[in-house]
Structures are given as structure tokens and as C-alpha cells.
Write a sequence for this structure.
């Protein structure tokens, strides 16, 4: 797979490591922002993750003007409108999103409304509608998986029209992503595993799909290495602050990789399984990944073989004949999933989820063919192909 | 000196080629939607009257297709009766030329950011599958393999030749009808 042309863009300032939260006041002031609003959810607040952020700001006399902590798991246009109204009422001038994918996507959409004006977020849906920079926007991810802190997209549900509105613009990229190990330290084992496997899938697909390029490859390979080296350590010792930081960085790196190289069939199928069977995205990614890699194998043998170095380390890589490295990569991913299943029952097959009926596989396959990521899969996927992959993943 | 004179001619020729190919593709799409049930299977979910355009930024050439009842497609020429519901836009005539001269697959052109999609991405994928199937039928296998991500393994030579002959016949009659009207 030769890349004859590529584009790569990531202007997000990444602030990562110990005491990263304490850099927020300076970063706000350097963007002439003094009245930030925090957008988060009840889970984040309940887990006590706001306190270190607020404390870091107060110590530097940085006031947090408003906090909205009621973002639902599937955010909507109504929620976005309500938050924008509070932002305006409190005369805020910047946004700090704290949470997972939903809080971050909601904050991106709020930023559109408060920067562009109006109450109709649907008017800005689509690609390239935004033409100028938005308000200063900081993101503090509390899961190590979505990579939303470095992506230029958001999805918001219009509950009245029963449609999901996609937003895509380079101006949706945050100004600053703050990666502090304190933000993921209390993540429960099951979510730690699922979100890390989400990041693993982002990196693996970024490294093997059609839009791969030298720069995204570098981020993807490093992300795979960090996840392979640290995920089981963190599962065994959840308070491993260094390991948590490594996973959080891996998630960001995988996010940078896939937002510049796109993803493939794991995501096409995973989005459909998630939508129809209400399974968490990370769980879908984890259980589908090896089956899709097997389907794509002959088209991705070379890059997948290269990934073995990062998945299993130099010894295994050196001992494995070149012709078998791709298969060994898949086997290594399967072993990792087995270990995660032992530790937290992370499902390895659709059947193990207990939430998918075999009778749903046809519909899932049909939906997957309409998912944008399928375009970037290295192999053409027919309805029968998608159905066959799902059958293999059934268990 | 000579090179300076030849370059504008080459650029003009490229534009004429893209324009001609857009028309051939448009008319072939109309023909194949009449002849091939699996194409109609793809297009039948589009709303009737749905307008699809493939165009080159900033001012064309372009092709516009309209969805008719029962999954059939009608070639509207370079302009539709109203704004398109779905646009696939090449960023530059050079990018359109690469795809239409089979130097780059459609999927590669998407991956290399040569094209922008404005509209429902699911519909865009359907139209891409329709274009791929058309190319598999009307191009010699060697060329088709360069144009589509994966040449359909189940497409036998006799089916391909028969279908290609029917498509070319219909396209030729469409051209003739246009000439007579003009």
C-alpha cells in the first residue's frame, strides 16, 4: 500500500503528564480567556473529577464561571441549546469539556452556537460549514479511548427529527487537550478495558486502512505500543498512575492517527452494532477487531505484520518469520482480549455480550454498508462479506 | 518555447476528456439502471426525484443524475432542475482526470482527499458502489481493476460482455437521439 498523497493536520496543543491540570489557568490567560464554563456529566462530577480542576484554577485565581454537569450519554440538540443559553447568560468566554465522547461532542456543538450565534445547531451540520475559529476550547478526557480531544468531528442527536447530525470542521478541534493521570485514575476496570481497546482499534485501523500515511503511522504505532505495554498492568493495578498516563496518551495519539487516516470496517460494523443493540462503542471495537483483521488479511499483510513489533515487542517480532507476522499480530490481539475477558468479562464475541440476537446480524450488515468508514477499508465489502464477518464474530 | 505552447493545449484536452467522460458515465448510469437489477437494488432507497451530481470545482464539468421511480436513474446533463441533494466534488480538474483516466481508484481519490462529499454519506456510498459496478461492466478487466477497489469475483466474462454491449448500445442511441434533437 503506497501512499501517493496525504494530508495531516493537528493543531491541538497537548498538555500531558503530572500536574497538567495546573497548566489550565496559564493556558486560558494566554488565550485572553477569563470566564470559562465547564461542560461535563453527572458521572464525572460524582467521581470527584471536577475538584482537582476547580482547585487548580482557584489556586491561580481563575474563576470557573459556570458548570453544566448534566450531559446525557446520547446528547441532543435540546441539551446543546440549553447549555448555550447558560453560557450566554453567565457571559462566559471559553469552554472546558470534561468527560468522555458525549460531553466532548456536546461541548463542541455548544462552542459552535456560542461562537456563531443563534439557537439552531442543526443549521451548522455537515462538513466545512464553519468558516472561522470558535471560542477558546479545552478538553480534559476522563476515558482513555475516544480520542475526541484531537478530532474535528462531533455527532449530536436531533431527538425531534430522530436523526443524528454530524459536524465536521477543523475549527471544532480543541485549542488544548489536557492529559492528566488523575482524570482516569478512578475509571472502572470494564470501562478501562473497553476504552483502551477502542484506542487500540483506532490505531490498528489507522495503520492498516486506505488513508494511512507516514505521520499517522508514527502515532498509530506508538499508541499500539503504549496500550500493549500498559493495559494489563493497569488492569492489575488500577492505581498505577504512570500506566494510566501512558494509556491516556495512547488514546490521544490513536485519536491523532485515525483523525488523519480514517478507520475501516471494524468501525462500520461497530457503529451499526452499537446503534441497533445499544452496546458501548469500545466493547463493539474490541470484539470485532480480530475478525475484521482476518477478513482484510491479504490486503494488509505487510502493515499488520509490522504492527507485531509494537503489539508483542522486539523478541516475539524477531522470532516470528516475516510471512507469519500478520497472523501473529491477530493472535496477540486475541490473547489480549482473552486476558481482558478473564479480568473483567469484556466480551470477545457478539454472543458473549448477551445483548445481540443472531437474527439482528442481517440488519447490522445492511446498516454497516452505509457507514462512511467502509470507504476506507482496504477490501471492498459486500453485504455477504459483512454478514460473514458478523457470523464469525457471533461466537 | 514549444513546451509553453503545448501546455495550454494539453490542459484543454484534459478538460475536454473529463467533460466527455462525465457525459459517458452519466449516460451509462442511466442505461445500467435500466438493465441491472442489482443497481436498482442500490438506488431504490433514494427518494424519487433525488438529484446526485458529480462535479469538478470550481465551475465543472459536471454530471447530474435524477432518481426515478423503481430505482431508475435519468441523466440530466451538466445541470439539474434544482440544487443537488448529494454532491461529490473533485477539488481540481487534475483530480477528476486521474480518476476518469483510471490512474486512481474512486476509493483512493476519497482517501487522498481529492473529493468532497456534500450530502448524506450513506447515499454517497451507494452511488459509489453503483459507479464501481458500472465500471466493472463497461471497462476491460485490466482497466476495471485499476478503477475499482476490488473487481467482482462473481462477474463472468459472458455476463460482462452481454451487459457491456447492452449499455454501450443504449448510450449510443442516447447520443444519437441528442444529435437528432440538436
Amino acid at each position: 500500500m503506497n501512499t501517493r498523497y496525504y494530508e495531516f493536520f493537528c493543531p491541538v496543543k497537548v498538555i500531558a503528564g503530572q500536574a497538567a491540570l495546573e497548566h489550565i489557568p496559564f493556558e486560558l490567560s494566554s488565550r485572553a480567556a477569563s470566564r470559562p464554563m465547564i461542560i461535563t456529566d453527572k458521572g464525572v462530577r460524582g467521581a470527584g473529577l471536577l475538584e482537582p480542576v476547580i482547585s487548580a484554577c482557584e489556586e491561580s485565581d481563575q474563576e470557573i464561571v459556570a458548570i453544566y454537569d448534566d450531559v446525557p450519554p446520547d446528547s441532543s440538540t435540546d441539551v446543546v441549546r440549553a447549555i448555550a443559553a447558560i453560557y450566554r447568560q453567565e457571559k462566559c468566554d471559553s469552554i472546558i469539556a470534561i468527560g468522555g465522547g458525549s460531553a466532548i461532542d456536546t461541548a463542541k456543538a455548544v462552542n459552535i452556537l456560542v461562537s456563531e450565534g443563534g439557537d439552531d445547531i442543526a443549521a451548522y451540520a455537515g462538513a466545512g460549514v464553519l468558516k472561522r475559529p470558535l471560542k477558546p476550547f479545552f478538553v480534559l478526557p476522563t476515558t482513555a479511548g475516544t480520542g475526541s480531544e484531537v478530532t474535528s468531528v462531533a455527532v449530536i442527536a436531533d431527538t425531534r427529527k430522530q436523526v443524528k447530525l454530524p459536524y465536521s470542521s477543523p475549527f471544532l478541534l480543541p485549542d488544548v487537550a489536557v492529559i492528566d493521570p488523575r482524570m482516569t485514575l478512578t475509571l472502572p476496570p470494564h470501562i478501562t478495558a473497553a476504552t483502551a481497546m477502542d484506542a487500540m482499534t483506532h490505531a490498528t485501523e489507522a495503520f492498516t486502512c486506505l488513508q494511512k500515511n507516514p505521520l499517522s503511522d508514527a502515532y498509530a504505532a506508538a499508541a499500539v505500543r503504549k496500550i500493549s505495554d500498559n493495559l494489563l498492568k493497569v488492569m492489575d493495578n488500577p492505581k498505577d498512575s504512570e500506566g494510566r498516563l501512558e494509556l491516556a496518551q495512547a488514546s490521544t495519539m490513536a485519536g491523532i492517527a485515525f483523525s488523519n487516516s480514517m478507520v475501516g470496517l471494524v468501525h462500520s460494523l461497530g457503529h451499526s452494532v452499537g446503534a441497533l443493540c445499544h452496546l458501548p462503542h469500545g466493547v463493539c471495537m474490541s470484539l470485532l477487531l480480530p475478525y475484521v483483521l482476518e477478513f482484510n488479511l491479504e490486503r494488509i499483510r505487510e502493515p499488520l505484520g509490522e504492527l507485531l513489533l509494537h503489539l508483542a515487542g522486539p523478541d516475539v517480532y524477531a522470532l516470528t518469520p516475516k510471512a507469519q507476522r500478520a497472523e501473529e499480530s491477530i493472535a496477540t490481539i486475541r490473547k489480549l482480549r482473552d486476558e481482558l475477558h478473564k479480568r473483567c468479562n469484556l466480551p470477545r464475541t457478539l454472543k458473549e455480550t448477551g445483548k445481540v440476537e443472531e437474527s439482528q446480524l442481517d440488519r447490522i450488515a445492511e446498516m454497516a454498508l452505509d457507514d462512511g468508514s467502509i470507504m476506507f477499508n482496504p477490501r471492498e465489502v459486500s453485504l455477504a462479506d459483512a454478514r460473514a464477518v458478523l457470523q464469525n464474530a457471533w461466537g | 518555447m514549444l513546451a509553453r505552447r503545448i501546455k495550454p493545449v494539453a490542459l484543454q484536452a484534459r478538460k475536454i476528456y473529463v467533460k466527455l467522460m462525465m457525459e459517458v458515465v452519466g449516460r451509462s448510469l442511466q442505461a445500467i439502471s435500466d438493465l441491472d437489477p442489482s443497481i436498482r437494488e442500490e438506488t431504490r432507497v433514494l427518494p424519487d426525484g433525488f438529484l446526485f451530481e458529480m462535479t469538478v470545482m470550481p465551475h465543472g464539468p459536471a454530471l447530474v443524475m435524477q432518481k426515478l421511480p423503481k430505482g431508475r436513474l435519468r441523466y440530466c446533463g451538466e445541470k439539474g432542475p434544482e440544487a443537488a441533494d448529494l454532491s461529490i466534488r473533485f477539488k481540481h480538474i487534475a483530480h477528476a482526470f486521474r480518476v476518469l483516466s483510471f490512474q486512481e481508484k474512486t476509493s483512493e481519490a476519497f482517501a487522498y482527499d481529492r473529493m468532497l462529499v456534500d450530502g448524506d454519506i450513506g447515499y454517497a456510498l451507494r452511488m459509489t458502489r453503483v459507479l464501481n459496478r458500472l465500471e466493472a461492466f463497461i471497462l476491460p478487466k485490466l482497466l476495471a481493476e485499476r478503477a475499482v477497489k476490488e473487481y467482482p469475483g462473481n462477474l463472468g466474462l459472458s455476463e460482462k460482455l452481454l451487459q457491456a454491449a447492452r449499455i454501450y448500445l443504449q448510450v449510443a442511441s442516447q447520443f444519437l437521439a441528442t444529435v437528432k434533437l440538436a
